[in-house]
Structure formats: structure tokens, C-alpha cells
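Table S2 (continued). Query chain:
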Amino acid sequence: MDTNAFRMEERPKIKLEFTYSDLVLEVLGWFTIALLWILTILNYTSLPESIPTHFNASGQVDDYGNKGSILLLPALGTIIFAGILLLTRIPHIFNYPVTITEENAERQYRNAAMIMRYMKFVVVFTFLIIQYRTIETAEGIAKGLGMWFLPVTLGITFIPLALFIGRAVRFK
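Corresponding output:
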């Protein structure tokens, strides 16, 4: 084992300053969570009593429920958003694909915080799209999420995640 490496309890605790990219992702995240709530609140009263509550892998509706369930995605999105927001402030507790040392700690923490900010945005953005399509489907404008939803969502989630992990390994 590297004698300069730290166990998790001994990892350096560094307060990271925001970069421009960090700021852009934070603003996008906050804007998207606000938009998710605004979309929901503005459309709530016009929704029918029974709305789609679940979609299958092909994007087709496979379950319906009470219109009050439309509040679930914004509530869950807010909880996830807040949780990731808090976690982003303590990157020294994350798991890393490399050993954290005094020399690489700041770069690894920045990369990990960026991953978390990106994932926070992607989750809330995904919820926004689901909410929008749920409302359109409930109002008879659309018929589900569409076949494109699952592959695109998987792509915008896992391709950048793989790139961030690859970058972490290069930052040894």
C-alpha cells in the first residue's frame, strides 16, 4: 500500500471553491427543480382524477392512479436534490477508484463533486420530462413517454458517468 495514501477517516478535508462549470450545473439544477414544481402546480387543477402513474420500458402507460400522485415526482426530486446537494459538500467520504493522497485529493474531490452535480441535474431533468409527459398523457395530448425515453435517459446518465470515472482514474 502507498505510504502516502490516507484511509477514509484521514483523508484531507478540503473546502472546494466553485468553478464556472460547478456554477452552471448548480444553476441548471435549481432552475430545473423550480420548473418541475411550477409545471406541476400550474397543471394540477386541470388534470383528470385518474392520471398515469407508471410507464413500462417502452414508454407506454401501464398503471393509473389518483391525480394527487402527480406531486410524488417533485417531492422525490426535491429530496434527492437536497441530499446530493449536501453530499457534494463532503467529497472526502465518497468511494474513489484510486487511492486518495495529499497530491491528488483536490482533483479527485473536484471531479467527484462535478459527478454529483451532474447526476443531481440529470435526475431532476429526467423527473421534469416524466412529469411533462405524464401531464400531456393525462390530458390526451400524448401517449406515454415514447420509445426514445429509456435509451436517451440511460445515455445521458451512464455515458458521462463513465467519462467522469475514467477521468478519476487518469487523475491518479
